[in-house]
């Protein structure tokens, strides 16, 4: 047999071996299920690090988020919100930990879906003369720049100057509205405390909810701001809050996407 034929035979055997190795690879090596269809969020599983996710950490009420590889639902990364009142400059009555993206879709999105997980959950005991603190998980969807915003928020005040309106979704931890804002509606998804050490899926039909709660489908806006948060409010002084909160596999579904 010629050297050329031997070389071709060798190449063929190598190719067959590579295919066999791929087929024999353990199932755990394959990426876990990702949401089907188009996703308006960039880097929804945090596999590429922080960008383009941002926070409002320049404000004293906002804490920074982290990207970790220790507790993940799929892939190798997840968003971590280190809710901890013992951190520097964190001992305020209100503190928000979260990650934000600003979207500019032509049509208002259909839904927001994703997963959260809580590893630790410590709420303060309220003194007898104080109202109890709220510690909860929240997704906020804010419509910015819709020219109808002022009319929607203050229908009897044509001179009002409001640039946004929103829905605040309580995923867990709060059984009643924490506070009221004229430009915000509240939708309570789960009134109970979050379960510990398990991934929980949420699905928020934001297009239907804006139509139901605000009476309109948002349009002609500048942007849609989506926030994934863990926070506390009304924390009494000298009390402690600590929670380890994770988000992963987040998705904002466009209107034309009918995938389930």
Helix and strand arrangement:
Layout lengths: L2 H22 L37 E2 L2 E3 L9 E7 L10 E9 L7 E12 L11 E11 L4 H5 L10 E9 L11 E5 L11 E5 L1 H9 L8 E11 L8 E12 L7
Parallel strand pairs: 1-4, 7-8
Antiparallel strand pairs: 2-3, 3-11, 4-10, 5-9, 5-11, 6-7, 6-10
Instruction: Report the β-strand fraction as a percent range.
Output: 25-35%
Percent of residues in helices comes to: 10-25%
Write out the CATH superfamily name of the largest domain.
Answer: Galactose-binding domain-like
Structural class: alpha+beta
Which series of helices and strands comes N to C?
HEEEEEEHEEEHEE
Radius of gyration: 23 Å
Distance between the termini: 57 Å
User: Mean pLDDT, nearest integer?
Assistant: 85
CATH topology of the largest domain: Jelly Rolls
DSSP strand tally: 11
Strand order of the largest sheet: 1-4-10-6-7-8
Extract low-pLDDT stretches: 3-36
Broad shape: globular
CATH class of the largest domain: Mainly Beta
Sketch the major β-sheet: 6 strands, mixed
Number of helices: 3
CATH level-two architecture of the largest domain: Sandwich
Number of domains: 2
């Amino acid at each position: 047999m010629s050297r050329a034929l031997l070389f071709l035979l060798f190449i063929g055997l190598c190719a067959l071996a590579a295919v066999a190795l791929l087929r024999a690879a353990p199932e755990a090596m394959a990426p876990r299920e990702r949401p089907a269809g188009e996703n308006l969020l960039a880097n929804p599983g945090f596999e590429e690090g922080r960008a383009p996710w941002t926070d409002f950490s320049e404000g004293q009420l906002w804490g920074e988020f982290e990207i970790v590889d220790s507790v993940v639902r799929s892939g190798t990364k997840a968003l971590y919100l280190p809710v901890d009142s013992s951190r520097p400059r964190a001992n305020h009555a209100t503190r928000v930990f979260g990650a934000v993206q600003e979207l500019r879709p032509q049509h208002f999105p259909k839904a927001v879906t994703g997963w959260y997980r809580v590893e630790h959950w410590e709420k303060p005991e309220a003194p007898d003369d104080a109202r109890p603190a709220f510690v909860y998980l929240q997704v906020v969807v804010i419509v910015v720049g819709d020219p109808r915003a002022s009319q929607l928020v203050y229908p009897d005040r044509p001179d009002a100057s409001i640039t946004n309106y929103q829905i605040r979704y309580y995923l867990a931890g709060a059984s009643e509205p924490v506070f009221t804002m004229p430009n915000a509606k509240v939708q309570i998804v789960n009134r109970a405390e979050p379960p510990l050490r398990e991934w929980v899926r949420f699905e928020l039909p934001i297009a239907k909810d804006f139509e139901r709660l605000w009476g309109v489908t948002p349009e002609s806006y500048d942007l849609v701001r989506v926030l994934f948060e863990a926070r506390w409010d009304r924390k009494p002084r000298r009390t402690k809050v600590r929670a380890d909160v994770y988000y992963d596999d987040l998705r904002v579904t466009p209107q034309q996407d009918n995938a389930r």
